[in-house]
Design a protein that fits this description.
heterodimer; A: 144 residues; mainly alpha; 5 helices; elongated; B: 581 residues; alpha+beta; seven-stranded mixed β-sheet; five-stranded antiparallel β-sheet; 19 helices; 22 strands
Chain lengths: 144, 581
C-alpha cells in the first residue's frame, strides 16, 4: 500500500477553510478589525475632550486675569486721594492742622517708595524671554 | 409581434437611459456650478458663517504717578455680540433679549433693535459689560450670542491732570495728551485670531485656528506726584474762583532734575464723563501749560537781572537813578505806578518791580547779550518736554527780524512785554535759576515698564546758562522780593522762599492790548538756600484785582507750605520745636 500522499500547495489555507473553527475565527477577526476601526474614533474623542478642557482652562485663565485687573483697579480707587480725604473728613472727623510742629529726628529718611510689583515685569515673563532648555542643550552645535 | 415587442422594449429602455442620462447631466452641471463656477461665493459665505476673525488687543498700559499710583488704567469690559440670523425669529429673540436685559439692565427692545437694525452678520447688542455681567451672560449659553472682550480707560484719581494725561477714543487709541503722544508704547502691538465656530458662535475645539498674539502695552511711570498735582489743582481752582478769573496754570518743577511734579491748567474738562460729540469742548482738551503763549510781564525781569549779574555788569547793591521815565525812539517807558524813585539799587529794581530799572539793566547788557541769554534760558523755542503741540514762543530780535525789531523792544522785553512765552518755558527758566544756573530738560516720563524690562529716563542736563554765583545772588534778591510782600499774601512758615510777581497785559491779535484784562503771576523757589521746588502760578484775567502779589502769590505760599512738608524737607532751625536723638 502506497504511503506517499500527493503534496499540493496551500495546505494550511485549505485546512483553515475546512476547519470547523472557521466561523469562530471569522467572528474574532471581525471583532478585532471592528475594534481597530474604533481606535481613531476613541483617539479623536479623547483629543476633542482634551482640546475642550484646554479651551475651558484658557477661558478660566482669561476670566481670572480680568477679575484680577478689576480688583487692581478697585484697590487703586480705594487708595485714591479723593477717597482718603473723604474717609478722613467724614468718617474719622479729621481736619486740616491748625498748627504744625517740626521735629528733627536723628534717623535716615525713609526710602523712596518703590513701584508696586504688579506694575513691574513678572519673573515668569523674564524667564520666558531667555533661552529655552533645548536651546541650552544644543547651543554648542553650529546651527544657524 | 416579437419585433414590435422588442422595438417597444428598446424604445422604453432608451427613454429610461435618456432620462437617467439627462438627470445625471443636470445634477453634474449643478454640482459643477456650485463647486467650481460659484465656488468663491459659497466658500466666502461658508467662511462668513463658520470662520471668524478678530483683532486682538492686549491690555493697554497704565499711566502711573512717580510713586506708582495709577492715574489712568484699563479695565476689561465685554461686548455682547449677536448673530443677526439667530435673532430673526421674533419669539426667540425676545426670549434671549429678556434674559440678557435682566443682567445688563439694557432694555430688551433696545437690544433687539440694535441687532435688527443692521445688515452685517454679527453686531454688538450691548457694550462695556463688567466681568460679573459678562460671566452671567456667557452662562446663559444662548444660541448665536457670544462675548467679545474689550477694555475702557478708568481714572482712579478722577480728573487729576486731565489735560496732560489726555484720553483714548472708542477704539482705545490715544486722542489727546500723553495717551496720544505715547500711544505706541501704551497700546502695545495688535494681534489677530482666525477660528471656526459652532452654531452658538463659540470657537470649535478642533477647528482651524490661527493666532498672532497681541503684545501688552507698557506701563509708564510719570514724574508727576499725585499729591502735589492735586495740591496745585486745588489751589488753582481756589484762586480762579476767588478772583473770578477765566483760567490759569500752575507748574511745579524739581530744579535739580527737570522733573515736572505738577502741571495743571484751567478751564479743564471732565475726564471721567467725556462727550466727544460736543465741539465746544474741544478747546478744553489742550494742555495750556505748553500750548498757550502769553506776555510774562514783570516775572521776566529775573531773566534781565540774571543777564546783567552773570555778565558782572552789576551787583545787588549797584546804584542807579530812577527818573521815572525812559525815552527810546519816541517811546516813553514808565513804571507800573508811574513813580520816580530816585537812587535805587539793583535789588530794589526787582523788589519794587521797576520797569525803568529793567530797561536800564537790558541796556547795560546790550541787545546782543540780552537776546543771547534769552535764547540760552530757552525762550523762542520748544523746551523739548516731549509733548505734542508745544508752542515755541515768540522772541523778536535784531537777528531774526532786523526790519521789525526796534531799540524800544529791548526795553519792553526787559520787563516781559512784546515777548511771548509759554508757562512751561517760564517755569523752566525759573528752574534753571534755582539749579545754580544749570538748565535741566523738563520731562514728564520717569520710567517705562514693559513685560520685558524697565527703562529709566535719566535727567538730561543742558547748558550752564548763568554761573552758580550769579544764580545764588539772584536767588538772594528773590528772597528780598518775597520779604517785601505782606504776610497776608505770602507767609511760608519754617522755610525761606524767593520769588517774583508779575502783572501783564494781554496782547490781542491786532497788536494792541486787551483793555482792562491782565495776567497775574508769581514765580518762586523753595527753600531759598537749596531749592527743591520751582513753581509758576499764572492766573488769567482776574476780575477783582490784577496784582500778582494778591492773586497768585497766596497760592504759591500754600503749595510750598504743604509740598515741602510732604517731601520731608526739613525746615530752617527756628521753626523746629524739638529734636529727638
Amino acid at each position: 500500500m502506497a504511503t506517499v500522499r500527493k503534496a499540493h500547495g496551500g495546505t494550511a489555507l485549505t485546512d483553515l477553510l475546512r476547519s470547523p473553527n472557521l466561523p469562530v475565527l471569522l467572528i474574532a477577526a471581525s471583532m478585532v478589525v471592528g475594534l481597530a476601526a474604533l481606535l481613531p474614533l476613541v483617539q479623536s474623542s479623547d483629543a476633542t475632550t482634551r482640546a475642550g478642557t484646554v479651551h475651558q482652562l484658557e477661558q478660566e485663565k482669561t476670566d481670572w486675569e480680568a477679575r484680577l485687573r478689576e480688583l487692581e483697579l478697585d484697590v487703586a480707587t480705594l487708595g485714591s486721594l479723593n477717597r482718603i480725604e473723604q474717609e478722613a473728613t467724614k468718617r474719622l472727623k479729621m481736619g486740616p492742622p491748625k498748627e504744625v510742629h517740626y521735629i528733627s529726628v536723628d534717623l535716615a529718611p525713609p526710602a523712596e517708595r518703590k513701584l508696586p510689583s504688579r506694575f513691574l515685569p513678572s519673573s515668569h515673563e523674564q524667564k520666558n524671554a531667555g533661552s529655552s532648555l533645548w536651546e541650552d542643550a544644543f547651543g554648542w552645535l553650529p546651527l544657524p | 409581434m416579437s419585433k414590435t415587442a422588442a422595438g417597444g422594449v428598446t424604445w422604453r429602455l432608451w427613454t429610461i437611459v435618456a432620462v437617467i442620462g439627462i438627470g445625471t447631466l443636470v445634477i453634474t452641471g449643478r454640482l459643477a456650478q456650485l463647486q467650481i463656477i460659484d465656488h468663491q461665493q459659497y466658500a466666502a459665505e461658508a467662511r462668513l458663517t463658520h470662520v471668524s476673525q478678530e483683532t486682538l488687543s492686549d491690555r493697554r498700559g497704565a499711566l502711573l504717578d512717580r510713586n506708582g499710583y495709577p492715574l489712568s488704567g484699563s479695565e476689561d469690559t465685554f461686548d455682547v455680540m449677536v448673530e443677526r440670523k439667530a435673532w430673526e425669529d421674533r419669539t426667540a429673540a425676545e426670549d434671549a433679549a429678556k434674559k440678557i436685559s435682566d443682567i445688563t439692565r439694557v432694555p430688551a427692545d433696545k437690544l433687539i433693535s440694535n441687532v435688527a437694525g443692521t445688515d452685517v452678520f454679527e453686531v454688538a447688542a450691548a457694550k462695556a459689560l463688567n466681568f460679573q455681567q459678562a460671566t452671567a451672560v456667557r452662562d446663559l449659553g444662548l444660541r448665536g450670542v457670544r462675548l467679545l472682550s474689550s477694555s475702557h480707560r478708568v481714572y482712579p484719581e478722577g480728573n487729576l491732570a486731565a489735560q496732560l494725561l489726555g484720553f483714548v477714543g472708542k477704539d482705545n487709541v490715544g486722542l489727546t495728551g500723553l495717551e496720544a503722544d505715547l500711544d505706541a508704547i501704551l497700546g502695545g502691538a495688535k494681534g489677530s485670531v482666525t477660528f471656526e465656530r459652532d452654531g452658538l458662535g463659540n470657537q470649535l475645539a478642533l477647528g482651524d485656528r490661527q493666532e498672532v498674539p497681541a503684545q501688552p502695552g507698557a506701563n509708564i511711570v510719570l514724574t508727576l506726584d499725585r499729591y502735589i498735582q492735586r495740591l496745585a489743582e486745588t489751589e488753582l481752582d481756589k484762586a480762579v474762583k476767588e478772583h473770578k478769573a477765566s483760567g490759569g496754570t500752575i507748574i511745579v518743577i524739581q530744579p535739580k532734575t527737570g522733573e515736572i511734579l505738577a502741571m495743571a491748567s484751567r478751564p479743564t474738562f471732565d475726564l471721567t464723563n467725556l462727550d466727544l460729540s460736543d465741539d465746544s469742548k474741544v478747546a478744553l482738551y489742550r494742555n495750556r501749560a505748553i500750548t498757550d503763549m502769553y506776555e510774562p510781564g514783570s516775572v521776566f525781569k529775573l531773566v534781565t537781572a540774571a543777564t546783567a549779574l552773570d555778565l558782572k555788569l552789576v551787583n545787588p547793591d549797584t546804584w542807579w537813578y530812577d527818573s521815572g521815565v525812559v525815552n527810546l525812539g519816541g517811546w516813553s517807558i514808565h513804571n507800573w505806578d508811574f513813580s520816580a524813585n530816585g537812587s535805587q539799587t539793583v535789588t530794589q529794581i526787582l523788589s519794587k518791580s521797576l520797569n525803568t530799572g529793567a530797561a536800564w539793566l537790558a541796556q547795560q547788557a546790550g541787545a546782543q547779550n540780552f537776546y543771547t541769554y534769552v535764547d540760552r534760558f530757552g525762550f523762542g523755542k520748544p523746551t523739548g518736554i516731549g509733548l505734542a503741540g508745544e508752542a515755541p514762543g515768540r522772541v523778536r530780535t535784531p537777528d531774526n527780524d532786523p526790519e521789525g525789531w526796534q531799540p524800544v523792544d529791548l526795553a519792553t522785553n526787559s520787563f516781559g512785554q512784546a515777548i511771548s512765552v509759554t508757562p512751561l518755558q517760564m517755569a523752566t527758566a525759573l528752574a534753571t535759576i534755582a539749579n545754580n544756573g544749570l538748565a535741566m530738560k523738563p520731562h514728564v516720563v520717569k520710567e517705562i515698564v514693559s513685560p520685558l524690562g524697565a527703562q529709566s529716563v535719566q535727567p538730561e542736563a543742558g547748558e550752564q546758562v548763568i554761573s552758580a554765583e550769579a544764580s545764588q545772588t539772584l536767588r538772594h534778591i528773590m528772597g528780598v522780593v518775597v520779604d517785601g510782600i505782606p504776610k497776608a499774601y505770602l507767609d511760608v512758615q519754617g522755610y525761606k522762599v524767593g520769588g517774583k510777581t508779575g502783572t501783564a497785559n494781554i496782547a490781542t491779535e491786532n497788536g494792541g492790548y486787551k483793555p482792562g484784562a491782565y495776567i497775574s503771576s508769581f514765580v518762586g523757589v523753595a527753600p531759598l538756600e537749596d531749592p527743591v521746588l520751582a513753581i509758576l502760578v499764572k492766573i488769567d484775567e482776574p476780575q477783582d484785582v490784577p496784582w500778582g502779589t494778591v492773586v497768585a502769590a497766596p497760592a504759591f505760599g500754600r503749595i510750598v507750605q504743604q509740598a515741602l512738608a510732604y517731601m520731608k524737607v526739613p525746615p530752617t532751625e527756628p521753626a523746629l520745636v524739638s529734636e529727638v536723638q
